[in-house]
Design brief:
The protein has 16 helices and 26 strands. The protein is of the alpha+beta class and about 725 residues long. It has a six-stranded antiparallel beta sheet.
């Protein structure tokens, strides 16, 4: 009765009720519930509106109003974990990608989904058999013009500037749920158009596509012929390949664990004939068993296609003395790719009747480099370019396949998405072809150190690329990049009698002997044992610092000055007594941006400035891992020893050696370094007028060669002279 009386009293006195703690808590809870209810309702409203939009676009695709014939192509489905395709809807049922279907229960549909490796669309395993043929058509052979391929824009990254407006009415193409007409995106030029504007635009232009802002770099589908390489199997084969990929991944993890246990009981050093700077390198290799896609070979089902691994293997053996041989040159500048029986049948497309002014971009992607984001970059490049010009590097397929397909292209550029090891791998493959005028090479820095990319102004990592506009900015910079020259050096490994112990290796950046090579070797072994730890460029550098810190108090190389003999241009050079390592540098960046030579230092007046195209190497010494750490943060400098064109390092005992970050343990021998040749590289122009001028001069020289005003040899000499003048 007392409680009831108190309650009645509070109700009769509102001021007392407002001061009650219970009333305040109740109001707070009620307000919070109200806010959450409103937010949830708005979220559902927006989701339903977006779903309605997508259905409207789908209905428009099924009932096209355009009278022009549009090419069609099946999707190329690749099995991927659902976690990689969050916040995306199935392109068939338009439901969330996280929903499972009964057809694929045998391969755990809750964890996997299909994604098209060409356009980025996703589909449930139970839906992909009903997918329409609205993917990017790689080949339009027989068409007079490239046709627009309008589709839903599944990815929002790397769009060119100005692509957020309708290409017909020039009104904004917003994806907001209160905006107007739904939108289409052309899979080639990346332009947008309102579905309501499409009919008018088609009547005016005939749906002819000009390939957009990157038309100079895109391999036109008009000149691509798809070879007939199909096999039966359909969707069942797709599921089988997905299950095989999952099992292969598990086998790879088991093998890496077994390696780890094996190495714990054995020495981690090789016997001396170990090589990691041949065609296959740590940075440039991928586990063959973990590859689902990456091959252009597809098998066609009722309305889609599924990627199939190639059964053949590209020869990626060590480089031998065949590189020295020079045979007769063909018109297109390559001698070794013509009718190669090892490469015949390994490609799915053939280029026909390319116009002389065609200058497409050949792209190599190493998904195992650095942060291991190659799969993502390949998809993004497939969206922006023709998938026939994008190749994934692996232990079973090297750069030779892509170079073989481009053997009839007179003028093309190369983009390497990888680290320094991948760059060396591709440059070695280009050297094998003995081009009269080799293609210039640009770098997308996807490795850990990215030293060569740094000196060529492409940046030290992917973070910088993303902040500056993504791949669209990179492609624009490639068009206006200046051609420069990079010296390449041959490293012969000789015994005491002067005979080669193994095929020569090739150096682009630097060679190290001693403590720095030991740190690189430890990291190499750690990567082999635990590849999952190397998932981020920043974390990779942290692991390098951690391994280096372990050696700070370790005086393993205290006797280094008496374990090596250094000779430069025939003169013996004394190694300082405090040295624990010797570095031979070709470029002005080491270990992620360290300048070993310091051209601006006027104290050393008896040495010349460093240059990567003067056919001269610089030799410095370092005094331990603590010295390496101080070099990294700019608190110390390496000790200059010599400059020369030929360098001989005699190892009197077994020591770790590394070339461009690829380490191994070398038994006593003599390392003889000599000039091998020069490669054309593309340097990002810091000043826009300079870049435009270089691009114009390059176009003039290539057009002059195409019209037989000059030949390939003369063009190469002129480009070398231009590169030298622009670099000075």
């Amino acid at each position: 009765m007392d409680d009831l009386r108190d309650s009645m009293f509070m109700l009769s006195n509102p001021s007392e009720l407002a001061d009650s703690p219970m009333f305040i808590v109740a109001c707070f809870v009620a307000g919070l519930v109200g806010i959450l209810t409103i937010a949830f309702t708005a979220f559902q409203w927006r989701r339903n509106i977006n779903l309605t939009w997508m259905k409207a676009v789908a209905r428009s695709k099924k009932n096209p109003k355009a009278k022009n014939k549009v090419p069609s192509a099946p999707h190329t489905w690749v099995l991927e974990p659902t976690a990689r395709v969050k916040n995306m809807n199935c392109c068939i049922c338009l439901k969330s990608s996280s929903l499972s279907h009964s057809l694929g229960q045998m391969v755990a549909t809750d964890s996997f989904i299909y994604r098209c490796s060409v356009c980025g669309a996703v589909a449930h395993l139970g839906c992909c058999s009903n997918a329409p043929k609205d993917c990017k058509c790689i080949s339009m052979e027989g068409y007079e013009h490239v046709m627009h391929q309008w589709a839903v824009r599944w990815t929002d990254t790397d769009l060119p500037d100005g692509s957020s407006f309708c290409s017909h009415c020039e009104e904004p193409c917003s994806t907001a749920f209160l905006a107007g007409s739904p939108i289409w995106c052309c899979l080639w030029c990346q332009r947008l158009v309102h579905v309501d504007c499409h009919t008018s635009m088609s009547n005016e232009t005939g749906d002819i596509c000009d390939l957009g802002p990157f038309k100079k770099l895109i391999l036109s589908p008009l000149y691509v012929r798809e070879l007939n390489q199909t096999s039966p199997g359909g969707i069942l084969s797709s599921i089988t390949h997905g299950a095989n990929e999952f099992a292969s991944t598990m086998r790879g993890r088991i093998r890496s664990r077994s390696k780890k246990h094996k190495r714990s009981s054995e020495s981690s050093f090789d016997t001396g004939n170990s090589s990691s700077n041949g065609d296959i390198c740590t940075d440039g290799t991928a586990d063959a068993t973990s590859k689902v896609s990456g091959s252009h070979i597809t098998e066609e089902s009722g309305s889609g296609s599924v990627t199939v691994n190639r059964s053949d293997q590209t020869s990626n053996g060590d480089i031998d003395n065949k590189l020295e041989a020079k045979t007769s040159l063909s018109r297109n500048g390559s001698i070794n790719l013509k009718d190669d029986p090892h490469l015949e049948g390994k490609h799915t497309y053939q280029f026909t009747d390319l116009p002389p002014d065609s200058k497409p971009l050949l792209v190599f992607v190493n998904k195992k480099s650095g942060a291991q984001r190659g799969d993502s970059f390949r998809l993004r490049l497939n969206v922006l370019l023709n998938p026939a010009q994008v190749f994934e590097l692996s232990s079973t397929e090297g750069p030779e396949v892509g170079l073989y397909m481009f053997r009839k292209v007179h003028h093309f550029k190369v983009l390497i998405c990888g680290g320094d090891g991948t760059v060396g791998w591709v440059l070695n493959a280009i050297d094998k072809q003995n081009f009269v005028s080799p293609p210039p090479v640009a770098i997308l820095p996807a490795g850990t150190g990215n030293d060569l990319a740094r000196v060529l102004s492409w940046g030290g990592g992917l973070g910088i690329i993303e902040r500056q506009g993504g791949l669209s900015t990179v492609l624009n910079d490639i068009e206006h990049a200046a051609v420069t020259i990079l010296d390449r050096w041959k490293v012969a490994i000789l015994n005491q009698q002067g005979k080669q112990l193994q095929p020569p290796k090739f150096m682009n950046n630097y060679l190290g002997v001693g403590c720095d090579a030991k740190v690189a070797l430890d990291i190499h072994n750690l990567r082999e044992e635990n590849p999952e730890k190397f998932y981020n460029q920043f974390m990779n550098k942290v692991l390098y610092a951690k391994e280096g810190a372990k050696r700070i108090m370790d005086r393993t190389f205290a006797n280094f000055p008496w374990q090596v003999r250094l000779e430069v241009d025939g003169a013996e050079i004394e190694v300082p007594e405090d040295a624990e390592g010797v570095l031979v540098a070709n470029i002005g960046s080491y270990m992620g941006g360290v300048d070993l030579w310091h051209n601006e230092d006027e104290y050393y007046d008896n040495f010349d400035p460093q240059s990567m195209h003067d056919k001269v190497l610089e030799v410095v010494s370092i005094s331990g891992t603590w010295h390496l750490g101080k070099l990294q943060v700019g608190l110390s400098r390496a000790q200059r020893l010599a400059q020369g064109q030929s360098i001989k390092i005699q190892l009197l005992s077994a020591l770790p050696v590394q070339i461009d970050g690829e380490p191994w343990f070398q038994q006593p021998c003599t390392l003889f370094i000599s000039h091998y040749g020069q490669a054309f590289m593309l340097k990002r122009a810091a000043e826009e007028p300079l870049g435009h001028a270089a691009a114009i001069i390059t176009d003039v020289l290539e057009n002059a060669e195409s019209t037989n005003i000059i030949n390939a040899v003369q063009k190469r000499a002129l480009m070398q002279e231009m590169a030298m003048r622009l670099s000075s």
